[in-house]
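We give its fold:
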Amino acid sequence: MNHEIILIKQENYNQNEIDKSILRAFEYFGGLGKFVNRGDNVLLKVNLVAGHSPEKRITTDPSIVKSVAKMLLDLGAKPFIADSPGIDNFSRAAEKAGFKKIADELQIPCVELDEPIEAPFAENLAYNKIKLSRKVLEADKVINLAKMKTHGQMLLTLATKNLFGCVPGRLKASWHYNVGLDRVKFASLLLDIHALVKPAISILDGVIGMHGDGPTSGEPYKFGLIAATTNAPKLDFHLCKMMGAELENYPLWLAAKSRNFPECELAPEDLYGDFESGFVFPGVKIPRTRSMRLLPKIKFLERLMTSKPVHIPEKCVGCGRCQEVCAAHALKHENRKLTFDYAKCIRCYCCHEMCPVKAIKFQESLLVKLLSKI
């Protein structure tokens, strides 16, 4: 019986080498035909958080997308590339990230995930009436092409969180506002979206990912990894450990554990491939915006324990995207100066995530600093 996860060493984005690794991943699970039928409309859900060039390592690398799309075409399927950026114009973002070039070359669609409709009722969800893009719900299959990065709000953004892009446009901001400061509640929403989308397979681009102040303002990190799985949450939990982070600080794991998900029980036999059991990537910088494990014990101190976003005026270009994306209306932008209302701020860090010039940083709370020394 095959394991649920394959981890493949991949040192670069050479297209021929990428093709070999992607083919190996599919063949491990019984071939692409196990997931997709001839004639299927297959949505390739990329990571297009915003319009960034591939060299910044913020978005899924085009070589990964091209490889999967070509194999689908050879099978007789009908792939299309899709996502919903947080704030950027989709066409410009897709062009900058290299996805439009791939789509034009292969003569396949590259489209925005818009047209929100309510997903069909499903059992055992934490939330009701989740609206996803019509294109997601009407696709015959979804293949999840995620990026391996750290994340200021959610610690890590891997395979499961990549599917949050199936929520169209500004509805993302509404969800951030609705769950407020509670990362575990937000993570539970991510688990629900994963259950609704039901990706046929998830493939993670960790050849060169990101650490530090991810998902957009961190530094590139060469993980040298392509991962594939039929169980995205379980892959994410294993990668959490491999990146040197603690599961007890990972909101996605805490949410899954609170709901008694079997994926929380990790074992070496879950994994197959080129990395030794217990391997940990050295020197990965994990965001420390607060201590998750202490929150349930001192809930009333939650806001005080959470790092806050602060402005770096000398880097600001005055684009105003931070104010535009703020769901809580907690900041005001005038003449390249930001004024934060921290009483309103829900610490979603969308302002940090969408800033194109890294002009917003985290200011760690004194309480987190003190607790980290205990």
Q: What stands out?
A: Residues 291-300 have pLDDT under 50 and may be disordered. The CA atoms of residues 251 and 317 lie 33 Å apart.
